[in-house]
Amino acid sequence: MLDLSVYSSQQNQQLIDSTDWNVLETEFDPSRLHHQETVFTLGNGYLGTRGTFEEGYPHDSPATIIHGVYDDVAIASTELVNCPNWLPFVVKVAGERFRMDSGEILHYERRLDLRLGIVSRDVRWRSPAGHTVEFHFERFASLANQNFLAIRCQITSIDFEGDIEVEVGFHPEPRTQGVKHWQTLKQGGLDNLIWLHSQTLHSAIEFGMAAKLIVEGEETASVCVRQGEHHHSTLVTTLQVEPEKTVTLEKIVTLYTSREIPTPAEAALIRLVAAPSYSTLLAAHIAAWERVWQDSDVVIEGDRLSQLSIRYNLFQLLAVAPRYDDRVSIPPKTLSGFAYSGHIFWDTEIFILPLLIHTQPALARNLLTYRYHTLRGARRKAQEMGYRGAMYAWESASTGDEVTPRWVPGPNGEQVRIWCGDIEVHINTDVAYAAWQYWQTTGDDEWMRDCGAEIILDTAVFWESRVEWNQQRHCYDIRDTIGPDENHDRVDNNAFTNVMVQWHLQTALALWDWLVKSYPDTSAQLAEKLYLQPEQMELWGDIANRLYVNQDLATGLIEQFEGFFNLEDVNLADYEPRTKSMQGLLGVEATSQKQILKQPDVLMLMYLLRDRFDRKTLKTNWDYYSPRTDHSYGSSLGPAIHAILACDLNQPVEAYTHFMRAAMVDLADVRRNAHEGIHAASAGGVWQAVIFGFAGVRMTNFGPIACPNLPPNWTRLKFRLKWRDEWHEFDLTA
Amino acid sequence: MLDLSVYSSQQNQQLIDSTDWNVLETEFDPSRLHHQETVFTLGNGYLGTRGTFEEGYPHDSPATIIHGVYDDVAIASTELVNCPNWLPFVVKVAGERFRMDSGEILHYERRLDLRLGIVSRDVRWRSPAGHTVEFHFERFASLANQNFLAIRCQITSIDFEGDIEVEVGFHPEPRTQGVKHWQTLKQGGLDNLIWLHSQTLHSAIEFGMAAKLIVEGEETASVCVRQGEHHHSTLVTTLQVEPEKTVTLEKIVTLYTSREIPTPAEAALIRLVAAPSYSTLLAAHIAAWERVWQDSDVVIEGDRLSQLSIRYNLFQLLAVAPRYDDRVSIPPKTLSGFAYSGHIFWDTEIFILPLLIHTQPALARNLLTYRYHTLRGARRKAQEMGYRGAMYAWESASTGDEVTPRWVPGPNGEQVRIWCGDIEVHINTDVAYAAWQYWQTTGDDEWMRDCGAEIILDTAVFWESRVEWNQQRHCYDIRDTIGPDENHDRVDNNAFTNVMVQWHLQTALALWDWLVKSYPDTSAQLAEKLYLQPEQMELWGDIANRLYVNQDLATGLIEQFEGFFNLEDVNLADYEPRTKSMQGLLGVEATSQKQILKQPDVLMLMYLLRDRFDRKTLKTNWDYYSPRTDHSYGSSLGPAIHAILACDLNQPVEAYTHFMRAAMVDLADVRRNAHEGIHAASAGGVWQAVIFGFAGVRMTNFGPIACPNLPPNWTRLKFRLKWRDEWHEFDLTA
Predict the structure, then answer these.
(1) What is the chain A residue with the closest CA to B271?
(2) B154-182 mean pLDDT
(3) Contact B263/A193, CB-based, under 8 Å?
(4) What Pfam family is a match for this entry (chains A, B) (predicted)?
């Protein structure tokens, strides 16, 4: 039975009561302000801007976040900062400021057009003084030219005759979760232009932004610069309106940072002055999204909520993937929120990357090259911790050095030690795994030669120094680690980690053979650079064969780590209904003593190394671990993986429940934390659930093939995958 | 007899061997480099740029000087600074830099088109490697948009096939007579643009300049930014040429200072990016000059050298008069050289202003308003010296405070005291005189009410405190002064000064009557502001009537100052020929003990107050003072005045000699100091000599009338004068 009740609230019905390309909001509800700000986030591969309103509200959380613009901060070392806000657009009707929390809203609709990448809003508003005016706002962050942003506002008077004043500007020094990161170096205005030149306080990244205001059909002379408080320049125009007259205003914004150009303030000005019209910018933007959707769209028929939600998840990932920058990656909240400080986790390689590898390989390559550029940081980390090779940071930022906080304030003010940066070592195989998947799928030998091989080999070198020979058991241990299930830290022989390391070392050897044969010069250079010796490579095979995994030979059940089966067993159903994670409910310490999983661990392994486990083994482990996993408030990384494995076990209805939990996590605020930002890994998992779960795609030497397990209500599933320069079209019907 | 031999050198013959609108140079003569740099100066009311060559030479003196951009300096207090050079434009033919001092010049012609305001140059050059190429350079400083400058270079290969590289840029920190005044705040480049943002070291005037390079008929992509030494950005392009192929390059430059806009660097960029094409800029520039010439041109027929030279002198004045700025004035060397540090003297009011009052009254008004804005400085000077009212600085800059150097290094290293700033007080009447002339000619009552009255009245107040009652003689003395003839300083009762003060006080009273009657409110406010009392005003009349002047009642001969007639008399002819001033020849001290005039003093008075002296008195004084004046190397302010008075005495041939000395002072380097810059006062005197001398124009209550005394070779003299909103056309024939 499909239980969709949780998603069939009036809100969600409103959401889908439209085309399959539009996320709608039909009332202005201040209580959902922050959640909807996340939902209506726009991005263009360079920056993300939360869906706050142009006119601003007292408790709103405006944010514009640019890839790679980190600044130093306490505890988290470095964080992506909230950049100067480009949205401010204030309209005054007969002197009264347009605000939806004053006067009367006669009609309201906000729309995120996923196909076009546009957020728009229609409001019919009666001012406190009784003037009725209609507003149509629309905005986009150009996908065609990442340094251009634009807002168009059409104002139609219904019954008002008189002056409407429009003032647009910037908010130059927004804080990031309370922390100041900006100093304004210079700002000013001239004609119908304003600009801002600022710099981050510690990392000294320069930021330049410029804007112009255009009154359609009027001379620019009608716009002038106003010097506001703190010498803050804005652009102002006053329009004479009368009933049934519509005026159109366009705010065109350019912005640059010193990350991409040495002179961002000048570049912003130069580009702005020479900027095409709003319409021309918009046309190029729409065409760019059209090209993206051509390859990445997934069509689902028979289930409009699934259709809309898959597109929403794809949109947010396609909107955040860096297009022209291979020194940044995708944070767990995309560029839509500040949780996790914008650090980079395995979320990118394991959850987000498959969509891009199979439909936008150039973007996948950018993200993987970020890991190549951060190898030096990974080597520093290994060296500092007494190991060899490259040890990727659990949380990574610009340099690849570890930026996971070591101590964080606990709920009662005590300091809590966070071990992930020290011992959540599976990140090292995750990166290697993604590099391998990219290569296998694309056949991009050059990238593997120039970047991938060094990643896979130097992280393999690390494992050699990290494993310990257990003389008693006559095998290798990997002790004191954290697996994907972070409810249990400082464990020995985490099965996920050990088997993945096994795969890693075996893969590294296979890769080395290929490299020596195909690119002997490169292999010789790498051998010298990474101190690779033939006898050492033999050791890799030995380690791979002898890594300890506690698996019951009869049933195939794998113990998550040594001693897991000895922990207290718990029936999670006893705690339902709840609105918190089990860890939140029981506490960190108590949870770690119980068989409660935050997210799949052994099962995650069985998904990643899908071909190594037969259906019976999967069934045994699924039956054991799935009931012990906190599906509702554990990690948002889990549901999509469970959906895939459920499909593998021919349980499409259970799969669908997991799938919808992932697919709707942001649209329906399933976990009540969507205000913190988009769940990027979940979004990537949603695509994997559709492709590898419901469509049952498996990779063969001849390309992808589908073994579908469609949910009962899906009548059609259509998508395409690129495999070694060829597109494979899938059009599956029930 | 007309003796034109001095001007009929081959050089001058070349000069005039053309239309009546072009100054020509037909050979590149390094020995005349600096003189010709002055001659080929361009200006647009905002800046002046000396005629140095785009490619630069080891000993050249490039200078771009902007009105009002002063910076602190030793001795002279403050000086107009040499602004970053916008000209650099380097061409390399097959790697060899185009320089007229290497390879071979097969043809050369430089031209200053006075009508169009364009300097152009044609050079056919054979490179050291033997490649022959033709260059056509042209440049202008836009009169239509004072912040735009442009260079066009057309290169035609005669026999060369290969690469020509063009590199354009700025010289960002030129020195001003050896002194550093600039710090570069920022510079950079992007696409086909470069920019510079700098600041004066002491006065903190910001300067912004930007340039782009356009290859006609090619994509901008062919131009790129090169980072040279000291991070100095230039724009570079490489062109493939072949015989008979012409390539055209355009360098468009914008520049601003913080004097006119708070954000000059940004403004320069904004304007540059949105700049019209070279052709469009040029068309607007030509049209602007056309409008100027329509009112200010003087047509002389029968004497092409006079025709060309009058236009040249007019051109340089019209090119320097500030168009949109009433807080600057015209320095004695215009904006073409650094002599006198760019300070403002009486040269502007007495010599330059009449041209503008009668043909470009809006520009005259700007210049007079400069004196209004500097009244506060003049009041400070009066107060510091123990006087009341306003005492204009002999040398004035931005604030109106006195900036005449008090001590300067003498020829033998000794310190020489310069008294002009303390006692050359006639400047106070000169300013009042010019304000009055402006008003009388234009009828601009509003300006007189708002600015002029305060100038004339407060400077009159000064005289009241400056004169001394001489109980013995029962008259007022003005003691310890310097008159126009600076060969004699610290004199008592200089006749020029005393009679001008007489005029000043009488005029102030007449003005006051008018003001009280026409604008009682303004007069009341001024009375309060300037502490004007009725009894005090009566005193003015008394002082005017009793100022001491030693005039022989029988002959009308006026003694230049008390004791002049007792000084040693000298026959100047005894010292001819000479190439120095008499003061230079005899020394300061010795000259001051002799009856040798640097420039007209009593005769100057007779010109300024022309109606107060009859012909007989003029003749007496002319016969006495003219032979005692150093016409050739004394002040360049003298010859034009002598020309006028010679006309009044019906001596047009003698007048013509004086006239040509003034008219050719820069073109023919008559005084051998043209390299220091244009002689602005002389240029203004040249116009006055033509209009008030040869045409014999006198002002009546019904407007100007002409009583011509044309030189024998002039067949026609045509010009127009504006009198109280009406144009009066003069077309005089011999």
Answers:
(1) A273
(2) 96
(3) no
(4) Glyco_hydro_65N
Of B395, B486, B559, B676, which residue is the catalytic one?
A: B486
Q: Could you report the per-residue pLDDT of B619-631, keeping only the tens digit for each?
A: 999 999 999 999 9
Q: Which residues pair with B349 in a beta bridge?
A: none
Is B66 contained in some domain?
Answer: yes
Identity of the amino acid at A140: F
Distances in whole angstroms, Cα of residue A349 to Cα of each of A324, A356, A565: 18, 10, 30
Active site amino acids of A:
486
**Is B193 in Cβ contact with A263 (below 8 Å)?**
no
Find out whether A245 is annotated in a ligand binding site.
no
Burial of B411 by CB count in 10 Å (0-12 exposed, 13-18 middle, 19+ buried)? Answer: exposed
Count of the separate structural domains present in chain A = 1
Tell me if residue B486 is catalytic: yes
Contact, B195 vs B187, CB < 8 A? yes
CB B459 within 8 A of CB B390: yes
What H or E segment, with its residue span, contains residue A235?
strand A233-241
Q: In A, which residues are within 8 Å of B188 by CB distance?
A: 262-263, 266
Cα separation, A120 vs A322, in Å, equals 24
Work out the minimum CA distance from B147 to partner chain A, whole angstroms. Answer: 15
Which residues, 6+ apart, have CB-to-CB distance to B467 below 8 Å?
Answer: B476, B477, B478, B501, B543, B547
Q: Which of B186, B261, B270 sits opposite A193 (nearest CB)?
A: B270
Q: Which residues of B touch A193 (CB under 8 A)?
A: 270
Predicted confidence (pLDDT) at residue A32 exceeds the cutoff of 50: yes
C-alpha–C-alpha distance, residues A323 and A260, integer Å: 12
CATH number at residue A140: 2.70.98.40
Q: Could you tell me which residues come within 8 angstroms of residue B717 by beta carbon, excluding any fewer than 6 positions away? A: B298, B299, B300, B301, B690, B694, B695, B708, B710, B730, B731, B732, B733
Domain hosting A72: range is 40-292
Distance from CA of A138 to the nearest CA of B (A): 27
Q: For residue range A518-542, what is the model confidence (pLDDT) as tens digits?
A: 999 999 999 999 999 988 889 999 9
| Coil/strand/helix, residue B454 | helix
Confidence of residue A296 (pLDDT cuts 50, 70, 90): very high
Q: Look at residue B487 and tell me if it is in a domain.
A: no
Spatial neighbors of A471 by CB under 8 A, at least 6 apart, are: none
Nearest to B270 among A186, A190, A267 (CB): A190
pLDDT tier at A1 (50, 70, 90 boundaries)? very low
B157, B245 Cβ separation under 8 angstroms: yes
Chain A contact set for B261 (CB, 8 A): 190
With CA atoms as reference, the chain B residue closest to A269 would be: B270
Q: Kind and range of the H or E element at A704? A: strand A703-705
Nearest CA in chain A to B186: A263
The verdict on residue B650 lying in a domain is no
Q: Residue A220 has what pLDDT?
A: 52
Does the annotation flag A687 for ligand binding?
no
Q: Mind listing the pLDDT tens digit for each residue in A191-203? A: 999 999 999 999 9
Instruction: For chain B, list residues whose CB is within 8 angstroms of any CB belonging to chain A.
Output: 186, 188-191, 193, 195, 261-263, 265-267, 269-270, 273-274
pLDDT value at A441 more than 90: yes
Counted residue by residue, chain B has a size of: 734
State the ipTM, two decimals. Answer: 0.80
Between A188, A195, A262, which is nearest B188 by CB? Answer: A262
* A642 assigned to some structural domain: no
Judge: B266–A191 Cβ closer than 8 Å, yes or no. no
Instruction: Count other Cβ atoms within 10 Å, centred on residue B124.
Output: 16
B544 contact partners, CB below 8 Å, separation of at least 6: B501, B502, B503, B505, B506
Q: Could you report the per-residue pLDDT of B340-376, keeping only the tens digit for each?
A: 999 999 999 999 999 999 999 999 999 999 999 999 9
SS3 labels along B99-158? CCCCCEEEEEEEEEECCCCEEEEEEEEECCCCCEEEEEEEEEECCCCCCEEEEEEEEEEC
